[in-house]
Amino acid sequence: MLKALQFLNLSNNFLSGPIPSSLANLSNLQALDLSRNKLSGEIPQELVQLTFLGFFNVSHNQLTGPIR
């Protein structure tokens, strides 16, 4: 329902658990900031489908895996 969303800033919100792979459905996303939370697990490889994504910040979390 949020396919037109271009910028999403969820930093500093004490979010926990894995990054949902469903974020890859936000096909027009240009900037995603998930920094300074308590996210864990692997960074979903589905996020490589976000071809417009120019800014991606997941610093200060407990995430693993490559960012490609």
Can you walk me through this structure?
The protein is globular, with a radius of gyration of 11 Å. It has a single domain (7-63), classed as Leucine-rich repeat, LRR (right-handed beta-alpha superhelix) (Alpha-Beta Horseshoe). The chain has no helices and six strands. The chain has a three-stranded parallel sheet, with no helix packed on it. It is mainly beta and 68 residues long.
Please describe the topology of this protein.
Elements: E1 7-9, E2 16-17, E3 31-33, E4 38-42, E5 55-57, E6 62-64
Parallel strand pairs: 1-3, 2-4, 3-5, 4-6
Keywords:
single chain, 68 residues, mainly beta, Leucine-rich repeat, LRR (right-handed beta-alpha superhelix), three-stranded parallel beta sheet, 0% helix
Portion of residues within helices: under 10%
Average pLDDT rating: 95
The major beta sheet can be summarized as:
3 strands, parallel
Low-confidence stretches: none
Question: In total, how many beta strands?
Answer: 6
CATH homologous superfamily heading:
Ribonuclease Inhibitor
> In the CATH hierarchy, what is the class?
Alpha Beta
Distance between the termini: 26 Å
- Bin the strand percentage: 25-35%
What Rg is obtained from the alpha carbons, in whole angstroms?
A: 11 Å
Overall 3D shape: globular
Instruction: Describe the strand arrangement of the main beta sheet, using strand numbers.
Output: 1-3-5
CATH topology: Leucine-rich repeat, LRR (right-handed beta-alpha superhelix)
Backbone structural class: mainly beta
Query: What is the domain total for the residues?
Result: 1
Counted by DSSP, the helix tally is: 0
